[in-house]
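Hi V.,

You were right to ask for the full record rather than a summary. Here it is.
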Amino acid sequence: MPKRVVFSDRAFASLLAETNSQIATETGGLFLGFRTGEIWYVVETIDPGPNSIFHVAYFEYDHAYVNHLMKKIAYFYDKDIELLGLWHRHPGSMDTFSSTDDGTISEYANLHQDGTISALVNIDPSLRLTLYAVPRPMQYDRISYRVGDRLIPEGLLSYKDHHKQIELIEKRSSELRGAQAKDKQGRGFIKSFFYDFVDDLGNKLYAKTEEKKHVQSQGVSFREVLEWYTEKNKAQLEDVYINNKRKFMNQNDYYETILEQLDTDMKFLSSVGVVARLSLNERHFLQLIETDEDMCLIVTFIYDRRGVIYHYKGRYFKYQKGTYRAAYEDYASIRGGRDD
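Predicted structure:
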């Protein structure tokens, strides 16, 4: 884990520019750079995107935008750039993380064996940046930072020259032709199309509902039910390591397996008035997102040899088809019993 972070002039200027552009609300971004033992170097800071959701006490990334921009920036640099962590602004002097923050940050920490870094920006009234190293298992270790290109080792700020870019373009074009030829012999979508498919699925597939009768959602939000169910569920999974390489399964099968399990619950949630969407986050993990004007609920789904697993507020649980429908029904019966 790092004991210090060094920001390039460009990365730190980007963080300040984003803070200034959203001065009245929360905002944030992602850190890209290099891990080198006890010093990590942040050379790029990505803004959260034009379709982000900004509120005074909450914001949500434009996941499609940041995923797109991360890929673009990776092609600029001569050395392989990595996602190091994230930052966001908190209102007032609050320089500790909320429970919602904990859940998001734990996901980032689980993406790499060395964990992640996370920063908070406050303006009270002077601007403060508080930076933490977040290892696995998750804890917050405050660390120092410095700013300046002169402090970054030679080569880490170097872009690919045009000869290398041309070589890369020709190599990837050849690989794509080979993959397309292979795809014609098999089944499934190429990855880029499948990502678009999942995003479209979240917006359109469950717009029509087949059932309106079983449970009425009046006064019962999905958040309320999930909070109750998560506290009630003692079968928390341990030793879950999120690996987005998914070596044991074809990429398309991976998503289709999760979507098949979610189909029943997505239709049910829509039938009881829950407005939720499915989306891929910046690391290509499937998420169920419910947003209202005050809060945002995010549940992340992964698949390993134990089956489908959902992640909520830093904890992992086994997911089975109809899990959330059953939770709604149990909660409604208990709540109804209390009302009698």
